[in-house]
What does this fold into?
Amino acid sequence: MKNNWQVRPGDKFGRPKRLKIRPLRRVLRTTHLFSIAYGDVGSSIYYALGVVALAASGATPLALGLAGIVFVFTALSYAEGTAMFPESGGSASFARHGFNDFTGFVAGWGLMFGYIVTIAISSFAIPSYLGLFWAPLKASPVVMTTCAMLIVAFLMTINVIGVRESSLLNIALAILDLATQLLLITLALLFFFNPQIIIERVLNYWPSPQDMLFGIAIAAIAFTGLETISQMAEETKRPEVRAPRALIIMTIVVLLVYAGISVSAFSTMTPTELAQNWSTDPIAGIASKLSLGMVAADMVAKQAYSAHSLFW
It folds into this structure.
């Protein structure tokens, strides 16, 4: 069959140019992925403990533990899925490959709404802690909302600048965060830990079955952000290896921190005090109790030393 097609004069002017596909730069490593995901999941402890205590009361550690079990299986699923499909999209991409485009569409929008909720909750938790230095940040709804909006705008700007720059900031904040939480857990275990008191506070403040289920549902929100590593797969070097590794490390660290902070909270205060006085800033409540307890212990030690000196 003879081909009579010829180039027409208008083709080089009217024919649109094909778009070149430019893949994302692979600049992230395991430490970057861990810090980014820990910033999403680990930061939830700053508000989740108090919010869960409002519903689950004495069963707060159990509610967080049951949600943590689901978190473990979810993390393993994400690790397997990311190794199979190292592309951006996370759960939306997995749903598209496993089922169809519509299922991926629904999963993606569900994930987006989940992000909106966690961004709002997390941004409102920060002014509560800053309110310890300036009271209107915690007492005034207008000041608190304005501060939360500015925080969201600042973090959005950091992410727009570049993923590598934002990941470096996440690494620095993750190190500072882990060091602070480990210090609080260590001091609480050394000066306040008493298994009998913790068991009594759990049993004496045990919630109703409805409140228990509601507390577990709220606790599940605290573990939102796990899919961040999967979404960064296209920007990761060797994602099929480093993404699952970061997921496993992050899961272990988060569960240990949550367990330690829960024990520290129930060692230093009752569930009612946690829910009523420190619901928006539970970590500040632990630090406050630790400082008061250590000051009291220091006063008792000085009095004992004085009495010992007078006796001799």
User: Anything to note?
Assistant: Residues 101-130 form the longest helix (30 residues). The radius of gyration is 25 Å.
